[in-house]
Every structure is written in C-alpha cells, then in structure tokens.
Amino acid sequence: MRLLENYVARAEQLLNPVDWIPYVSSLGGMARVIAGAVQIAASIIFAYLKVAYNLVNRRRVVDALKEASVYAMHGAANIVRGALAIHPGWNLLLAVHDWKLGRLNYPEETVKPGVYPLATAYKLAQY
Would you give the DSSP letter of residue 70? Predict the structure, then answer.
C-alpha cells in the first residue's frame, strides 16, 4: 500500500500549483473531483474485499472498515478541494492551505521535508 499511497500523493501534489492559478485551476479542479470520486469507489471495493478476507480469517472487521474509511475521507477531501479549485477567487484559499496549514496525508505516505502532515500529526507528538 505504501507504494500506491506515495504515487497518488505525488500526483496530487503535482496538481497543487495548478490549483493556485485562477481559471486554469478549473481543469485541475475537475480532475481532482473525478479522482476523489474514484477514490471513494475504490475504498468501497477495498472495504468489501477486506471485510470478506477478515471474516474468512476470523479477524476484526472493524479494522478493515477503519482502513477503508481513511481512503474514503481522503477522496471526499479531494472532491472538496476540486470544487474550490473550480471557482476563481476561491482557489486562492488552496494556496494559503498548502503554504500555511500542511497536507492531508495518507497513513503510510512519506511526507516531503517542511510539509506538516495533518492526518498523521499525532505520530509526531512526544509523550
């Protein structure tokens, strides 16, 4: 999964600068909305297969659903980002998000240096 997550993350990050340019961002926004819908559909298929596997092997089904929900939520976030990118003016909020907030990363994604991982920030906490 790590290889796939890093590949998808790189593709998303390549679209980020396109999202900052008014009117041009509409193209990237449409691509991101479609990609988000595909992510959600893939997470549903993944959940079905993982739940079936866990039932056969007598493992916890909840773990499979949690893992699939991460990808579904990331797909929903891509749809929201794509919707913002489509509208000129609103797309500038995405530049602020990328520069100041960080990245909603995948669980096993290798985050670039200097980028704050929003989804796995709890792993950075020292007890």
Answer: H
The residue whose two tokens read 């290889």 is: 3
Distance CA 36, CA 83 (A): 11
Which residues, at least 6 apart from 12, have a Cβ–Cβ distance to it below 8 Å? 32, 35, 78
The predicted model scores a pTM of: 0.84
Upper half-sphere CA count for residue 115 (Cβ side, 13 Å): 16
CA distance 97 to 46: 29
pLDDT digit string, tens, across residues 26-36? 999 999 999 99
Question: In three state form, how does the secondary structure of 86-122 look?
Answer: HCCCCCHHHHHHHHHHCECCCCCCCCCCCCCECCCHH
